Amino acid sequence: MSNTQTVKKGESYINSFPEIYKKHCNRGRYDHEKARNSLMDILVQKGSEYITKNIGKMYAEVTGDEYFKAYDCDYKYLKYDNDSLLDLAAEYLQDRYDIWCEQKGYIDSCVHDDSRLEMPEGVSETGKEHIKLALSKLRKTDKLERKEVDWLIPGYIPKGAISVLCAEGGTGKGGIWTALAAAVSRNEVPDFLGIPFKGDLGLKNPLVMYASSEDSSEHVIVGRLEDNGANRANIIEIPLDEEEFENLTFDSEILEGVIANIRPALVIFDPIQSFIDKTVRMGERNGMRQALTPLMNMGQKYGTAFLLIVHANKGKGNYGRRRVSDSSDIWDIARSVLMLGMTETQGIRYMSHEKCNYGDLSDTVLFTFENGRVINKGRTTKRDRDYQAEVLYEKAAPAKDEAVDFIEDYLKDGQPHPVKELEEAAKGAGISKYAIRKAKEQLKEEGRIKFKSNTDGYCKGTTWTVFLVTDTK
To answer: Which residues does 460 contact at the CB level (< 8 Å), separation at least 6?
Structure first.
């Protein structure tokens, strides 16, 4: 907007000043200081967005202030030089705005003076307004206040952010999220975490909301909540069978309206896939980021913590962000990620803290279920990756033993055989490449087989043979 347009827009607001004038008249005389304070309070309280979007009105307000200063008489009888008065107002506004920017830590932008702005070539008038607004929002960090992380559940689930609970089927994710919900409803730290923490969670409103498309509230969830000592008066179901909620997604106006009015401490969605718009392709890079942005915004706006239940990737050797099914964006967006799994001890499960953007990872919690209640069985520094490696090793061990027997039988004639022929024969016998490689490594280390090449060292055309060592003394 040009200065001329700004002045015209400002003049359109002049009719608001008789009311301000009347409020500050004392026996027919105008109290300039009170009027000035009143006007400038309005300007400062409105903030930078108001300054940018309503700059014409500010010209009018400051102009009114200046002619109140110049003329001590009834507003409607004023005669004044409009251009001179606006110039005076603009000078005053510049000084006041610079002071305000300094106080707030905003960059000293020149959003009210187009002559001081540099714009990209060909930018539209709307684009210029957006750039001016963006400039007004830049802030110097020496004016920002350092804030500590506000936790819902200390060390595990932060307030106002998205957390993820990821698990394979049958590892107890339903039991864990209901136990977490039960603890929050009592305003207490979950005892199954086994962490030393005195006092309650300090919540003014320990309400929990959940939406589950996997388990029935009446047949499953209510029982789990009772088993874990929930204050059920503080736990609210989002009934997905009701018309208002049957197509509930994270960007739903209904969802934000409910959260804005109830202000729950925690909202749980089980599973995440049920609340993603059908047009979203979860596997595409950044596809989930747009879908989850509304939750991120609501978390910051209302202080609500969100816990998303996600299925784990069962692929061999996966850990970290690769363990989250469908989209790695879910891992990236979450501020905290918890992973469930089974230990090598029968009945003992683990909850591993895999990611935390706000501090150190908490120890892995070992737990079991007793009569539906989650019971702590200790803590460990082992992570999901360690447990997954153990499972992989246990599965690979029998295959490796089978491969060892195959190699010894294949080489029992004591003659050297080409390595490639051995590997092809193993493949034909249904033995994996990984198993045969591990078996060769073991037999070589134990001195039970030896390798020999037809040349010295490694060069083009080299072939390798392997033979069984019959005398290992």
So the answer is: none
For residue 453, give both structure tokens.
Answer: 């090449």
Q: What's the rounded mean pLDDT across residues 426-441?
A: 85
Task: Dig out the tokens for 464 from the structure.
Answer: 């390798």
Hey, CA dihedral for 20, 24, 29, 31, is it positive or negative? Answer: negative
CB atoms inside a 10 Å sphere around CB 112: 22
Q: What pLDDT score does 90 carry?
A: 46
- Contact between 215 and 174 (Cβ < 8 Å): yes
- Cβ neighbours of 45 (radius 10 Å): 8
Answer whether residue 473 is part of any domain: no
Regarding whether 233 and 118 lie in a shared domain, the answer is no
DSSP 139: B
Confidence (pLDDT) at 5: 45
Instruction: Give 3-state DSSP helix, strand, coil % of the chain, rounded to 5.
Output: 45, 15, 35
Q: Of the ranges 42-56, 290-304, 312-326, which one carries the lowest mean pLDDT score?
A: 42-56
Answer yes or no: do 86 and 159 share one domain. Answer: no
Answer yes or no: are the C-beta atoms of 94 and 113 closer than 8 Å.
Answer: yes
In terms of Cα–Cα distance, which of 376, 385, 324, 311 is closest to 349?
Answer: 376
**Nearest CA-CA partner of 350 in 387, 314, 315:** 387
Q: 315 to each of 101, 123, 168, 272, 391, how far by Cα in Å? A: 54, 50, 11, 20, 12
C-alpha distances out from residue 21 to 24, 46, 64, 396, Å: 5, 21, 9, 87
The CA–CA distances, whole Å, from 126 to 10, 56, 107 equal 19, 16, 21
Q: Is 90 exceeded by the pLDDT of residue 233?
A: yes
Distance between CA atoms of 105 and 144, rounded to whole angstroms? 7
Rounded to whole angstroms, the Cα distance separating 366 from 12 reads: 69
- Per the structure, the complete domain to which residue 69 belongs is given by 3-143
32 and 164, same domain (yes or no): no
DSSP calls for 188-225:
S--GGG-----S----SS--EEEEESSS-IIIIIHHHH
- State how far the Cα of 327 lies from the Cα of 313, in Å rounded to an integer: 10
CATH number of 370's domain: 3.40.50.300
Pair (181, 156) in one structural domain: yes
Residue whose tokens read 């991120």: 296
The answer to whether residues 370 and 230 belong to one domain is yes
Last residue of a domain, one of 74, 108, 143: 143
What's the confidence (pLDDT) of residue 227?
96
Asked if the structure places residue 307 within a domain, the reply is yes
178 shares its domain with 272: yes
